[in-house]
Design a protein that fits this description.
The chain has 839 residues and is an alpha+beta fold. The chain contains 35 helices and 17 strands.
């Protein structure tokens, strides 16, 4: 039985030779679908056509008649339109070779295969296993953090902001009356401010899977599931563009193992990135599909017929609907959503210019695209007006892009009819864009002020590692991408440059999408590395092409069709001839492996070497965001102590380094909405000379302090007294009276802020005190890494007016001169006073 790809090729050749037989062949498909064999007498084909049908393996003999081979593939060819006769597209192919590649035939074959819903017959077993394997690699990379995330029966999410999302996830899920509680979508409180769709999705999935009790599991696995879904979208995008399954699978690997993307979507990382990336992937794949379809049709017929067929194809309007969903969702996925639509506007403007240059009607060729943008913009605006979601700038931006697209398409249509230069059209589009922004600024000055504020938040915040440039001088400029994206970045840049040159000369609106998005996110990542996560998605197809090109250059794979004209089969490298299933147009639609075991070993070794940096860097970069056992133990220690002494929020608020603050407070008091107090006060507190001086500022606001190891801390500071001296006066530091050490483990010190008990000595001479000070000393047991260690704790006070008052933070039996006094836990927590009277 021939493969579906072989049937597709044979059907195209048959219809190219016999276009008059299309209706008869369509009728035969319907006749064959009845399930019974048919004979020559039952069909409308003549004897010659029937003979060719059998000779081309489109039909095969069975008992009592004939049946069609792969009727779904034949049906798809008829629906897509017959291929031109042999040689009709030779000039186009020669142009592709002369102009650097990105053969339109590859796009054509890919679109024909991928613009319809796949069936099991479309994918061979090895290709399916390859896809499953790469998606498992995507998931596996994100499970590197699992040991740090799943601790002692809890889900300990990495980083800090994740606990903001968990805060709203649990509160909204607790309020929901069920999956159909539509009123909650319009009443999400503070969650509706800047990332409403992310919060809404989180609580809805939580309710779907069982309610608040399922919240930790959703927080753990939702980012991984979203990443795997995005991996499939990357696969479809690469296949649409290249028709090469090897490139598509390589693209998934480069995306899935990009360290910066893994960090933002690892297990437990419930933040806006997983949502944002997924909708961005849908946005790109739908725009790409719409572009590739026009190119495919233009290679089979004249440009105007191709544009009209594109606009009338119901499948393209399904993609337009997907585009609308992506636009509306992207507008409300995260705070900086207006940035998402800048490359969309660029794609529309440049695509219209390409249409005009190649004498294709912009209005017809872009009808589904305009429909998707307009519908999506309407959805984004409706969510803002009806549900109160996000800021107005987020809802208005897609409206501006959709409106601008309509104007630009109309302008392009006029430009084409009067035969003006396409390059001048680009300048006119820029004038339209600037004019629109000026008008918007005058009509809504408040939005412009808000844009400036958001831009300051996104681009000019300091003290956060993700605000550095991808090309930071700290990593010699060129090594930053290696650390964040892996070696695939360098493959991608080379191919991206070629692709940019190619679309400037050829009609490739599908490639235009990924080229625009790739350059745009390269620019943003140059400003701040936080955008490298999106860049990893955009450059994945280019990196995949680069890898396959490398493999073909060392003679272990068939050349990739998009970087040059496919060579004839007789000139293929002998090692690669049986590697893949190839259509007659050069697309590789089925994965294969070399026959030689040694060549297979070379193939695997080369791929592993290319991905080596990713495999090494992913664990180290992910490890920088996770909370280690000592930190989580500190949170549990504080929670246990707060429950034991009955402290409620805010008396159980934990002060810590701001990057960990939400984690501590999430597990102790559940109030992880913000970290502003910690960011404003923690460093000042550690730099102060006397921690006890801060007690009055903390009273009623801070109940616990967690201090972690830091390098280069100065002496004679609060940090030295509490971290190095444990608050007990160890290591030649001063003991404190308001900080009770609860635990010390692996550089993490956990303290309860307490009033401290006071020991009043009314007659210092009676206790044998000499000089002007009285000292109280006790042995205090401290839990250090699970072992009780005894420290001497000594506090002194100056005699004034014949008395001395000593404040202590730990319970115990204190030796004061020649007298002994007992201080209890209640004394320390209540600030009680114990008096040592005169003898």
């Amino acid at each position: 039985m021939p493969a579906p790809e072989e049937t597709t090729a044979a059907a195209r050749e048959f219809l190219a030779d016999h276009p008059e037989a299309e209706d008869a062949l369509a009728a035969l498909i319907e006749r064959d679908a009845q399930g019974a064999p048919w004979t020559f007498a039952d069909i409308a084909l003549d004897s010659g056509q029937f003979g060719e049908l059998v000779a081309r393996d489109l039909a095969t003999s069975v008992d009592d008649g004939y049946r069609l081979e792969n009727p779904d593939a034949i049906r798809a060819v008829i629906e897509a339109g017959a291929a031109p006769a042999d040689g009709a597209d030779a000039p186009a192919e020669e142009a592709a070779a002369d102009e650097g590649g990105f053969a339109a035939t590859s796009s054509a074959d890919a679109s024909a295969m991928l613009s319809r819903l796949p069936t099991l017959a479309d994918v061979d077993a090895l290709t399916l296993l390859g896809l499953i394997g790469t998606l498992l690699a995507v998931a596996g990379a994100r499970l590197v953090a699992a040991p740090a995330v799943f601790q002692q029966g809890f889900v300990v999410s990495p980083a800090n902001d994740t606990y903001f999302f968990r805060y709203w996830q649990e509160r909204l899920a607790a309020r929901a009356d069920g999956l159909l509680d539509l009123g909650l979508f319009a009443d999400m409180g503070g969650a509706a401010g800047t990332r409403p769709l992310a919060h809404a999705t989180n609580w809805w999935v939580t309710v779907l899977l069982g309610g608040v009790d399922a919240a930790p599991a959703v927080a753990a696995w939702l980012p991984v599931v979203a990443s795997v879904c995005l991996g499939y979208l990357v696969y479809r995008t690469a296949r649409l563009l290249t028709g090469d399954v090897r490139v598509a699978l390589a693209a998934v690997l480069f995306y899935g193992l990009a360290p910066v993307n893994v960090v933002y979507t690892s297990v437990g990382f419930l933040d806006h990135q997983a949502h944002q990336y997924l909708w961005l992937g849908l946005l790109v794949v739908t725009l790409t599909a719409l572009g590739v379809d026009v190119t495919r049709r233009a290679t089979q017929t004249d440009s105007q017929t191709a544009a009209r067929a594109h606009a009338r194809d119901a499948r393209m309007w399904i993609f337009a609907l997907g585009l609308a969903v992506a636009v509306a969702a992207s507008a409300h996925a995260y705070g900086g959503s207006p940035l998402t639509f800048v490359p969309v506007a660029a794609v529309v403007g440049l695509r219209v210019a390409l249409d005009v240059r190649h004498d294709i009607s912009p209005a017809t060729a872009n009808a589904p695209l305009l429909g998707g943008l307009t519908l999506g913009a309407g959805g984004a605006l409706a969510a803002h007006l009806a549900l109160g979601w996000h800021e107005s700038i987020a809802a208005v931006t897609p409206v501006l892009v959709a409106g601008g697209a309509l104007v630009v398409v109309g302008l392009g249509e006029l430009w084409r009819r009067v035969s003006l230069p396409p390059l001048a059209l680009v300048a006119a589009e820029a004038v339209v864009a600037v004019g629109g922004l000026v008008a918007y600024a005058r009509l809504r000055p408040g939005d412009i002020d808000r844009i400036r504020t958001r831009a300051d938040d996104l681009f000019f915040r300091e003290g956060i590692s993700e605000t550095a440039s991808l090309f930071s001088p700290d990593f010699a400029v060129i090594f930053g991408p290696l650390l964040q994206l892996g070696l695939g970045f360098y493959f991608a840049v080379a191919v991206l440059a070629v692709a940019t040159w190619a679309i400037a000369r050829r009609y490739e609106p599908g490639w235009l999408v990924v080229v625009c998005f790739a350059w745009y996110y390269t620019l943003l990542a140059t400003i701040q590395v936080r955008f490298a996560g999106q860049l990893a998605i955009m450059i994945a197809p280019f990196a995949g092409i680069g890898l396959v090109y490398l493999l073909s250059a060392i003679d272990i794979a068939r050349p990739v069709a998009v970087v040059g004209r496919p060579a004839d089969s007789d000139s293929q490298p002998p090692r690669a001839r049986k590697e893949d299933t190839v259509s007659e147009e050069g697309s590789i639609t089925s994965l294969g492996l070399p026959d030689s075991t040694r060549v297979r070993g070379y193939l695997v070794a080369t791929i592993l070497i290319v991905l080596l940096f990713n495999l090494l860097l992913v664990p180290s970069l992910v490890g920088q965001t996770t909370h280690d056992r000592a930190q989580f133990d500190a949170a549990l220690t504080v929670d246990s102590h707060a429950e034991e002494v009955d402290r409620e929020y805010p008396q159980n608020f934990v002060l810590s380094q701001w990057g960990d603050n939400r984690m501590y407070n999430y597990f102790v008091n559940g109030e992880s909405q913000g970290y502003g107090y910690a960011r404003s006060n923690h460093d000042q507190f550690l730099a102060s000379s006397d921690p006890d001086d801060w007690y009055d500022q903390f009273q009623g606001r801070v109940g616990y302090v967690v201090i972690t190891d830091r390098e280069g801390a100065p002496e004679n500071t609060t940090y030295a007294a509490l971290h190095e001296g444990l608050g007990l006066g160890a290591n030649d530091t001063a003991a404190t009276g308001h900080y009770q050490l609860l635990a010390s483990d692996s550089g993490v010190r956990t303290f309860a802020v307490v009033p401290g008990a006071t020991i009043q000595v009314t007659d210092p001479a009676a206790v044998g005190a000499t000089g002007g000070e009285v000292t109280a000393t006790a042995d205090v047991e401290i839990d250090e890494a699970g072992t009780n260690v005894t420290h001497e704790y000594a506090r002194s006070a100056t005699v004034a007016d014949g008395t001395a008052t000593i404040r202590v933070a730990h319970p115990g039996e204190y030796q004061v001169g020649n007298r002994t006094v007992t201080v209890t836990d209640d004394d320390v927590l209540a600030g009680n006073q114990t008096t040592i009277p005169s003898a």
